[in-house]
Amino acid sequence: MRTFLQRRGAAIPGVLNGFDRMRFRGTLLRLSSVGGMMYFVSRVGVLLKDFGAYAEAVTKGLRRRVEEAAAAEGRPVQYLERATDKERLVQKIRADQGAIERGWIAVFRTLENCISYDIFRNRQTNRTARVNGCRCVKGWRT
Fold first, then answer.
1. Does residue 2 belong to any structural domain of this protein?
2. What one-character DSSP code corresponds to residue 76?
3. 98-118 residues labelled b (16+ CB within 10 A) or e (exposed)
4. DSSP 91
5. Is residue 102 part of a domain?
6. What is the number of structural domains in the chain?
7. Exposure string over 64-73, b if 16+ CB within 10 A, otherwise e
8. Which of 14, 41, 56, 62 is most exposed, with minimal Cβ within 10 Å?
9. What are 72-105's pLDDT values in tens digits?
10. 103 is a domain residue
11. Do the domain assignments include residue 74?
12. pTM of this prediction?
């Protein structure tokens, strides 16, 4: 069976398509285990003792780029202090501001649960001996 566009294409001057919304959420599974974290730092060439500074620099760079893009779209970055239904908040913003033809609706910043790692040094060999992972709450520093 031919598609609608194949059958009626001559009468259609153009087609628009795109996303109605984009939501990025997830976990980097490779970083959710000690073994995965060790693999990652070896691949990017970062020493464990330097990982804190590396992660902070990557976070600052990502945050700066997101804030610049949000400013270009005329959207403030909103900090959410506690667990918030972000979907409901977006719907409220859309209702208050009317339909947004294109671009970003909202940009949120919040603290989320994540994995944290503790590094232990073997004082006799002066080398990293063990890395432990634990669940905790971390977030962006302002």
1. no
2. P
3. eeeeeeeebeeeeeeeebebe
4. H
5. yes
6. 1
7. eeeeeebeee
8. 14
9. 988 889 998 877 888 899 889 888 887 777 778 8
10. yes
11. yes
12. 0.60
